[in-house]
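check these tokens.
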Amino acid sequence: MSVFFNLTSNPLTLFSTTSRLETKPPQFAMTTKGVSNPSEPTQWDSAAAQYNDAVGRSSRIGATRLIAMADSLSPLSAADAHAIDLGAGTGSLTHQLASSFPAVPILATDISPGMLEQLMALNVRGSKITTQVADMAAPVGGEAAEGAFSHVFSTMAIQVLPEPASEGTLAQWSRLLKPDGVIAIAIWDFDEDCGPHAIWNDACRAVDPSYVPPPQLPPRSWTGCSQLEEGLKVAGFRDVQAEVTHLGFDVGKEGFLRFFWESGNPMTLECRGSFHGDLGKVRTEMERLLDEVYGGGSKIPLSAGLAVGRRPDT
């Protein structure tokens, strides 16, 4: 499960050429009933199938860099390497890791069975990937045994949880690690430019200048890399390294429109439910912005905060 983009995130029906050329924008029913709870499994089940069409691309870029950072701290080529991916979603990191280090057993966990089904549907025969439905706030149990893993990964998921350091989430995650094991976390960095949110907000305000967007994240969530880095240090992790990396959400105009209007992503449902007006006009403004400001959807900014560290001393 990836917050906001598992961007988090799907059955998408492609627009036909004729529908794209219609001069009258389609009308969209506005309802607040679809406002999402990002920790609710069914919210992500409905978004799973199309995740890789949009969010998955950006997640994979971040995952590639995060894997390299973790490998530099503790080699994934070691004979006893064993990894777990918490909030794995459809496997943006899981599959990258399996491709780069095919000998490493990987347990992918997520609260959404639908996400894990999609992950395994994309699995390459012969890989050492297994899955387990689990809440990442309390992941220990089943195959996710205490002290079993050399590397704990999580990409674009922990932001749905409040204060992961002070509320004990990171302490739970550290229990999964062997001595000197490595934690590696990526989050969407909303302290940097976030194109998808900016496009939505600007389109809505062009239609209704009084529009107030919903919060990007639940209360007391981490918003950027600096909080991620500090949180790991507060939780006692050692040799912490952190960086901001640009991912881009450069899926093109039609790809962005499919993501925002058809994907079933909880973030987009919440945005649409927050606008009390003509969503058809909002979509028209969104198309204009994509063409005039964002290079036809090829220059949409999006960044991630990445951090790695070693298990706290006991």
Observations:
- DSSP finds eleven helices and seven strands in the chain.
